[in-house]
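can u do me a favor
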């Protein structure tokens, strides 16, 4: 079959924004809806962890498949799964159903996530990857700003159930956009010897790539802990859903701003210095955050944390593609995503249990210590 029209990073923006609005809003709504049904923090953690737990079983294989078949079909399948999960909660609004919808939405989003990052990494020359990933990251930032805030206000105005349907509408529009254009990228053959099956261990033997994977997992833990704990913390101190949405929206706005500026200064700063500084700064922010209870100050701290974490993802993705073997870019993204999902699945369970036993403050402080310590150890090349 002849290749479709030339793909640029700009073709990925709209569907990515729409699908991530659905996912980011679903993450907030799952937590708040479960809490409204009198679920414990541990139960909320279990539900949210399923967003990442289910995809762990296929992400590496999905990356290998992407290297072979391209990105369009996985994008369509991912969008369809997100819609199905959101509509399911609307149709059957029960706590048990959240344990089904969460892995369904999470699997669909991760499949799309791998495909869209593989597309961005495969387009153009290597020196353009930071720009491509920055543009893609801006799409996620836009959604991170809109999704939680939209969901917070929607819950207050129309309730949890209809809010899930509203988010499904966003994903449905994204699916329509994907169907209208044949999004595809050039595929590169792996230089593996004939008959030799690629092994994930080969990627781990690359010291630089392994280091990128580890830092990526640590920063993802911080990212997802914040979005998981803030709804619980906000509910405990008596904030409404709209105020919680504003706090998360400020976090997303800061991420958008720093990613908008990243291409202007990325070539002036070492990638590793940027990542280590982000870990140290986020550690400090996590230590202070649970000591604050007023909404304006919480918004300010969320904004600062967004600035610290915002530029890390495009930088990490550029490093992944810089060190991935030819023809195995999708697989490398799959391995990185597996590590992210492992932390995303474990963090809500671990810190949900810790929060139920000791309170929310120790959750923030444990993550702060891990980030600050990790940043200190990574100073040596």
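np, heres the sequence
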């Amino acid at each position: 079959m002849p290749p479709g029209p030339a793909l640029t990073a700009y073709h990925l923006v709209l569907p990515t924004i729409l699908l991530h609005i659905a996912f980011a809003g679903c993450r907030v709504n799952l937590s708040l809806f479960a809490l409204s049904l009198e679920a414990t923090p541990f139960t909320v953690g279990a539900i949210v962890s399923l967003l990442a737990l289910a995809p762990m079983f296929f992400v590496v294989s999905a990356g290998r498949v992407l290297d072979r078949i391209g990105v369009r079909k996985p994008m369509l399948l991912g969008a369809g799964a997100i819609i199905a999960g959101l509509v399911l909660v609307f149709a059957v609004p029960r706590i048990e159903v959240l344990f089904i919808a969460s892995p369904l939405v999470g699997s669909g989003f991760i499949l799309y996530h791998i495909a869209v990052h593989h597309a961005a990494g495969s387009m153009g020359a290597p020196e353009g990857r930071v720009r491509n990933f920055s543009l893609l990251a801006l799409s996620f930032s836009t959604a991170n700003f809109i999704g939680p805030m939209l969901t917070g206000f929607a819950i207050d105005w129309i309730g949890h159930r209809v809010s899930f349907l509203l988010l499904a509408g966003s994903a449905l529009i994204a699916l329509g956009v994907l169907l209208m254009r044949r999004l595809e990228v050039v595929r590169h053959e792996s230089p593996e010897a004939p008959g030799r099956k690629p092994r994930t261990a080969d990627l781990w033997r690359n010291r630089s790539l392994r280091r990128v994977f580890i830092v990526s997992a640590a920063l993802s833990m911080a990212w997802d802990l914040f979005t998981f704990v803030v709804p619980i913390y906000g509910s405990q101190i008596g904030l409404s859903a709209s105020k919680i949405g504003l706090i998360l929206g400020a976090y997303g706005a800061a991420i958008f701003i720093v990613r908008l500026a990243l291409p202007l200064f990325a070539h002036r700063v070492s990638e590793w210095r940027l990542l280590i500084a982000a870990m140290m700064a986020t550690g400090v922010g996590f230590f202070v955050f649970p000591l604050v209870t007023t909404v304006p100050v919480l918004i300010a701290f969320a904004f600062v944390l967004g600035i610290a974490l915002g530029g890390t993802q495009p930088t990490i993705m550029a490093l992944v593609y810089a060190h991935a073997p030819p023809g195995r870019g999708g697989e490398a993204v799959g391995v990185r995503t597996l590590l992210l999902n492992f932390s995303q699945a474990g963090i809500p369970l671990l810190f949900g249990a810790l929060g139920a036993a000791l309170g929310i403050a120790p959750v923030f402080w444990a993550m702060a210590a891990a980030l600050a310590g990790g940043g200190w150890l990574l100073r040596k090349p």
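Residues 129-180 form the longest helix (52 residues). hope that helps!!
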